[in-house]
Amino acid sequence: MNKPSAVLSVERPLTVEKAKAEERIDTSPESVRLIFSFIACSAFWLVFGTLVGEYLGLKFVWPELDTISWLSFGRLRPVHTNVVFWGFLSQGMLALALYVVPRTSQRELFSYRLGWSSLGLMNLSVVLGVIALMAGINNGAQEYREFIWPIFALFALGLILVAYNLYKTIADRNVKEIYISNWYILAACLWTIILVLVAYLPGYQQDGISQTVIQGYYMHQGVGQWFTPMVLGLTYYFLPKLLNRPIYSYSLGVLAFWTQMVFYTMIGSHHFVFSPIPWWIQTVAIVFSVGMIVPVTAGTGNFLLTMRGKWRSIARSYSLPFILVGVIFYAIVSYQGTLEAFRSLNKVWHFTNFTIAHSHMSLYGFVAFLIWGGVYGLIPRMTGNEPPQFAVGAHFWLALIGVLVYSIPLMVGGTLQGLSWIAGESFIESVTLMQPYWVWRAVGGTMMFISHLIFAYNVWKMRPGNRIETAESTNS
Amino acid sequence: MKLNFHKNHKLLFGVVFWGFVFLSLIIAVFPALWVQQENEPLPASEPITELERKGMKVFINEGCVYCHTQQVRPIAMDENWGRPSAPGDYARINRPSVWRQTPAVLGSARTGPDLTSIGKRQPSAVWHYMHLYNPRSVVKESIMPSYPWLFKIVENPSKDATVVSMPGEYGPSNGKIIATEKAEALVAYLQSLKQVSMDAEASAAQKAKADSIAAQAAKKKIDGATIYANNCASCHQSDGQGVEGVFPPMAGDPVVTAEDPTDHIRIVLYGLQGVPIEGTEYQGIMQPFGEMMSDEEVAAVINHERTSWGNDAPTVTAEDVAKVRNNDELNKIQAEE
Ligand code: HEM
């Protein structure tokens, strides 16, 4: 295949002609290398983690796929979740943050060496964690903190270094105001550091249910105070930038920020509605789950109003459609989450496959799409290398249709599962009735997985290379 | 310096950091500490033995918790699994070592059944070994993984080895399957999972909830086929054919097809073990169901057996069951057996 030129647009009859990344941005080669390395690692973990996810999905249809202990469902499931959390999503978000924070502070990153150390520590942690989990060594099967502490400490250290690096960058900024993106991004890092400490420190979480109280807090905050604010912060930068128009309302962003911090923190235990943890904690969680309507509406409203009337530029861009999808999923999953917290609906959906649909719509439809939007928006501008447009389109549509084919059947099946239990049918009914929905999950999962291979290919195509020099020499 | 979040990074991130620390303390750390201090095992519960603890470790390491809950909610639909779980039920579970945290047995998905009371529902070790070696050998529709690495295939098992015999296609072509220490520990753990009764006053609130559940449950219609699927099919199979040499078939069984239902009722109420049926000795044991089921339920499941898979025997009523239950003499004979 021809390498598409960064300057000329090549005829591509199969797709709508998309706009090229119009301007090259001058970033130091050092930062290009660091940011691209984060993205490359992230893409690798995406492919690896979802290969595992795909395999897990197939096991629901063919439980006898293998009988090897290292590949059994109970060991691979945490491999899947931890790899997509700490490998794919976290490193993808940090790649973009390492661009956005210096950019909006109008200076270079405080320390590239610290940046590389973070990358190394985080990847070391994920590699060791995967091996340990497959060998059957986990941290009490506490969801998303399955890595035992000596392994997760490496990740935490990486995170502390990033936070310090970003803080120093912001502190020495060359502008007066701290742009709203930086509020979200650095806050996400700080919150997650606290979260990880609370999750792993001993003393108040030794026996029985005390552990569950912390787990409820951690499990939800992991999503809510790490992924959510991080990608929102990135979107507050990329959306206006790519649309070439300011964010609709800066103060709505500020309102969403503070309400996010207070409300989200209080709702963790909604994962344990009806459980034996103290009833008042559950009630607080439910009340604040309703309160979440405020930051969510403020956030999505703000983004959609920024996009208003610009639909044509969105269609012409190949990064903005990802962001549009991400914003829409943010709204859907958040309202869905509020519904799930009500005791009446929780009864039907809790413990069923509905939860699996919800978690994929949020982490995939919302978080992953926003990351992809940022990657496609940023990297070609940094390296001067465009990915093939057809391949970006294929990534977009396979991922979008894939996640819908994955989650809609699971929502239907999950609801039927819950109703079957309420009707008092024999348990095995709820297993056999899921079969067709699990087949759909495997089909959707396959589409998603193929799209990830394409994404990895696109990342390869966008890699910094001799193009930088050529582009520079033609520019000067 | 100005008190302006937009310009003063120390102020902004100070509030962000300490604000979150404060919220975390009130919503997570203090409640956990408080729960930890209140942590008190139920008086009727027994300490976890060394073997059971090992089994719990296998349970956690193999990730059984991703498909199985151990958490009964105070709502009607969970009443099948036992009484609502209380904090005391988990009080004896603690941190196994400095490397790992307290096992998360509550679980978050019910891809498989809740295991809170599996020790009562399925006390048979033989069944558990077969099920772990290959779940489909006892539950055809199961999607649970097989755990062959918890077993070993040997030519000549030693005398004290736990030999597991699998029906036909599910076993190895040659050699015998024996359970490893891990499998033995895991099964001991599963057998130990039984709810114990709650301390009367501590559980007043729970009991009120349980009562309202019982009231709701009473309204639920009793269906023999469902009771059979939930309680009997794991051994006698949904097609009533049993598992060769381990669990007898119900189709055409002499007790099930007998004119006089007394033996049938007695076996369901009090269980059966070590009694050859038509010359075959079955390795499995059958647990008593008398305490778990009402007379109506026992009658319904018996009638299901008596009228399914080609069986055509006279049916029974709840009164017949009550008569057998109340007949002290029969009870005593059973106790002596
Ligand atoms: C090829 C695409 C994917 C497939 C086929 C897949 C499949 C699966 C499967 C089979 C499970 C276990 C479900 C169960 O226990 O019943 C799972 C869980 C999970 N996956 Fe994925 N996955 C994919 C992509 C992703 C991605 C990209 C993310 C994150 C961005 C993700 C996040 C999660 C999470 C958080 C869970 C745990 C859900 C919960 O406990 O509620 N998955 N996935």
Description:
Chain A: The chain crosses the membrane at residues 34-56, 83-102, 114-135, 147-167, 179-203, 223-240, 247-267, 279-305, 317-336, 356-378, 390-412, 438-460. Chain A: This is Cytochrome c oxidase cbb3-type subunit 1. Chain A: GO terms for molecular function: cytochrome-c oxidase activity; heme binding. Chain A: Keywords: Electron transport, Membrane, Respiratory chain, Transmembrane, Transmembrane helix, Transport. The complex is a heterodimer of chains A (476) and B (337). Chain A has helices spanning 29-61, 73-105, 112-134, 149-171, 180-200, 209-243, 250-266, 279-291, 293-307, 311-316, 320-341, 343-349, 354-383, 389-422, 427-432, 435-461, 466-475. Chain A folds into 3 domains: 27-178, Four Helix Bundle (Hemerythrin (Met), subunit A) (Up-down Bundle); 198-309; 335-467, no CATH class. The model of chain A is unreliable at 1-15 and 468-476 (pLDDT under 50). Chain A is an all-alpha fold. The longest helix of chain A has 35 residues, at 209-243. Helices cover 75% and strands 0% of the residues of chain A. Chain B is mostly helical and 337 residues long. Helix content of chain B is 41%, strand content 4%. In chain B, helix 7 (224-231) packs across helix 11. At the A-B interface, helix 2, helix 4, helix 5, helix 6 and helix 7 of A face helix 1 and helix 7 of B. The complex binds protoporphyrin IX containing FE (HEM). Protoporphyrin IX containing FE sits between chains A (50, 53-54, 56-57, 77, 80-81, 84, 89, 143, 355-356, 359-360, 363-364, 367-368, 445, 448-449) and B (66, 108-109, 111).
Task: Summarize the model shown.
By secondary structure, chain A is mainly alpha-helical. Chain A is 75% helix and 0% strand.
